[in-house]
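--- STAGE predict ---
source: upstream dedup step, 1 unique chain passed
mode: sequence only
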Amino acid sequence: MLAAIPVVAIVALIIFALLYFAPGDPAALLAGDEATPQMIEELRVRLGLDQSFFVQLRIWVVSILHGDFGNSIFSGTPVLELVGDRVEATIALCLVTTLFAIIIGVPLGVVAAWRAGGIIDRAVLTMAAISFSFPSFVIGYILILIFAMQLQLLPVQGYVSISDDFWGFWVKIVLPCITLGLPFLALLARITRTTVMEVRREDFVRTAIAKGLPTNQVIMPHVMKNAAIPIVTMIGLGVSHLISGVVVVETVYAIPGVGRLVVEAILQRDYPVIQGVTLLSSFVYIIVNLIVDISYSFFDPRIKR
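--- STAGE serialize ---
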């Protein structure tokens, strides 16, 4: 937890420096094409963009320490309010994708390891190789072409809250969930397969099999409990990487989430929004990894907090 403080500080410094030295002037974009140089300069002064790097950095850091992530340059809306309006769609997409990857990926990896060299094992390895070979946006366009345009089974764009329309929520989130979760599922299946195969070669597993225990009693209490830590670690890393993956998926499927908010802010050079969302994402990344670390003692009592 103490190590998270310098990590966040370094991330904040890099974010601010990259945006400060990036090409493009938000004041010129905000002023419009017909604005004179004098009007642009006056707008820069009003927005504080004429200040030096260290002055702007100090103002930004002090504001964040007071819980103020700034306001959007273009809309004037506080960054936290913009994120709050869109975070539901992003959280729903990440949660459903994680459940999809765990529910399918872990059992596939276990079966592939238990039947190593068989048809299921080769199918899992082939699926994983194919999933790793395609970027998320390519997978998304292929799914849209097949299920939305040709078969006309699922909608292409949009998002509806589960509280407003339960069935509509699942119909609209299926394709984005598969697009975002397929590489995660494949990676989780391969990690599970490798870990289970290693544990299966241990003496206590061979002893349990020699005693004549049913396969399910060997897998669950003996194999999976000892293979849980690498799998949980990969789940935590996968959830963290979903944070960056939603940027592409929400853009492809026009989902009004935080990822699409970042894309819109980048196109407009809306620095406060980009800085705020990226910094909040780093917080989430650190929290997820902290939860994973704490969960180790649950799966293995030998690990103390």
